[in-house]
Amino acid sequence: MRRRLLALVCASAVLLTACGVLPGGTERRTVTVWLMKDSASAAFLDRFTRDFERTHGDLRLDIRIQEWTGIGAKVRAALRRTDGGGPDVIEVGNTQVAQYVDGGGLMDLTLESLRDADMDHWLPGLAQPGSFAGHQYGIPWYAANRVVIYRKDLFARAGVTEPPKTRAQWLTETAKLNFAGTQGIYLAGQDWYTLAGFIWDEGGDLARQSPSGGWEGTLQTPAALRGMEFYKRLQALGAGPVDADEEHPPQAGVFAQGRVAQIVAVPGLAQAVVQKNPGLGGRLGYFPVPGKTAARPGAVFTGGSDLVIPRNTGDRRGATAVVAALTGTTWETDLARTMNYVPNKTTLARAVAGEEGVSAMAAGAAQGRATPAAPAWAAVEADNPIKTWMTRVLQGADPAAEAARASRSITRILADG
After folding, report:
1. Which of 20, 24, 65, 284 is the most buried (most CB within 10 A)?
2. Alpha-carbon span 298 to 314, nearest angstrom
3. Contact between 123 and 345 (Cβ < 8 Å)
């Protein structure tokens, strides 16, 4: 019996060594990772890969960069594969997680999330859209969101000594800036992402799931109407077109003309402004979108990415090791500093404290939200009755009647999707 046990131990050791699991093994298991173009620099990925493979002697990384165009269909095809040749980890937009969960293609990572003692500090705008029915499918990776980019010189000329902390102050001080041919703020009439933040601040939402499981538009609620009323008052303090969004014309170009005191945009847009008008270099500042009280900034739409693991992965352990490393403190801090992103946890905001624009972004991200986690939400954005509602209200139509019309459209689109 003793000789048989010894033989079994030896045989097991041979098998493990052949797989590269025991020290001294020569083979590594390959973990295939899909990351999106420009999400991380080549230098960052090189640093991460070398460190990860050094600390995980049984794993090798195969990072494949993907284009955003057409990525939805490509991911869905990968999730349906049965030959084991698909990716093991995928970066997806935070608002895209719902559609992949709906198809049943993602691995439930609730247990892995619970092992992260700091998950309570995840940015809500990344964590919430990755969670469904109490289960976590998307692990937050990085975020970006809108702030107010402003002209320091115009603020000083108008006697505004510091950025506003509340929405009431924002209106008052923007009115002071709206003089002598200068727009207090350039806010296009269909900037619905900015509107969404005001609605969330009021306790409302764009759509909500009913007890029966269906989704319904909620723009007709008192909270949403209060958010729209604030948007209308703020938008009137400039000359933004009421029937176009912030890209028509691109607001960077409008701001660069030198007659606008503020815009609401991601901090990186300031680079485009200065490229168009170098004379504005050193004159631009940033502050979080103000909230209803000075106690905290206003809610903002949080864009960014989550990491997911397909159910058909052949290496759950290897895949979760990659996700844990990429979303852990060391590499979150490195990525935030390298790419000027907001880290995935509020407790890591100090990593970008030295960058004015990113620091303002991080303050807002703590109050961040995402669009409704309805699988068909992308269809709402494609048709976008929210934009139509906004334009009609700014042109003088009844806000409640138009909100009810838009909500019916949202409900129909989500039901048909």
Report:
1. 284
2. 43
3. yes
Residue 18 pLDDT level (bands cut at 50, 70, 90): very low
3-state SS string over 261-298? Answer: CEEEECCCHHHHHHHHCHHHCCCEEEECCCECCCCCCC
Assign 82 to helix, strand or coil. Answer: coil
Which pLDDT score, from 0 to 100, does residue 20 have? Answer: 41
Q: Please name the fold of domain 146-300+374-416.
A: D-Maltodextrin-Binding Protein; domain 2 (3.40.190)
CATH topology (fold) of 27-144+302-365: D-Maltodextrin-Binding Protein; domain 2 (3.40.190)
| 83: amino acid identity, one letter | D
pLDDT(11) > 90: no
Contact 20, 26 (CB under 8 A): yes
Which amino acid is residue 106, in one-letter code? L
Cβ pair 63, 45 in contact under 8 A: yes
* Token pair of 127 as six digits: 């964590």
Phi/psi of residue 156, nearest 5 degrees = -65, -40
How distant is the alpha carbon of residue 231 from its chain centre? 22
Residue 403: count other Cβ atoms within 10 Å of its Cβ: 23
Distance CA 121, CA 70 (A): 32
Spatial separation of the C-alpha atoms in residues 261 and 263, rounded to whole Å: 7
Residues carrying CATH 3.40.190.10, the chain: 27-144+302-365, 146-300+374-416
Q: Is the pLDDT of residue 220 over 50?
A: yes
**pTM for this model (two decimals):** 0.89
- Does 16 have pLDDT greater than 80? no
